[in-house]
Structures are given as C-alpha cells and as structure tokens.
Specification:
Elements: H1 2-28, H2 33-64
C-alpha cells in the first residue's frame, strides 16, 4: 500500500509544480480566464490525489492495528 501512496504523492507533486508555474503567469495576467480554468482543473486533480493519499494512509493504519486489538467502549 505504501507504493500506491507514493505514486499518488508523486503525481500530486508534479501537478503542484505545474499549477505553481501557471499561477506565476496568472499573477502577471489576471485577466486570462484560460489560465484560471487550467489552474482550477489542476486544483481539482490535486484534491483528488490528496484524497487517494489519505485513503491509503487510513488503510495502512487499519492494517497496522487489527480489529482484535481495538477496544470499543459502549456509550
């Protein structure tokens, strides 16, 4: 599972680099709606990668702590 999270993190980092480059251009040309749309699309992809990384992290935690070791207390 660690390898899968690593793949998502690399993709996220690549997307962030591309987004930051576009954002630098956007700050010089804030009237460019095309750049804004590209940045938005990249932000959406970055958010998706973050979700996958978080899911992998949670799955890894669950695997490290089997259900038999968890103590459930009644409310």
């Amino acid at each position: 599972m660690v390898a899968a999270a690593g793949v998502w993190k690399k993709k996220r980092d690549d997307l962030k680099a591309k987004r930051n480059s576009l954002f630098e251009n956007y700050t010089k040309h804030p009237q460019s709606f095309q750049l804004a749309r590209e940045i938005k699309a990249l932000d959406d992809e970055i958010a998706e990668c973050n979700q996958h990384v978080e899911q992998e992290r949670r799955a890894e935690q669950r695997a490290a702590y089997p259900a038999s070791k968890l103590v459930i207390t009644p409310k």
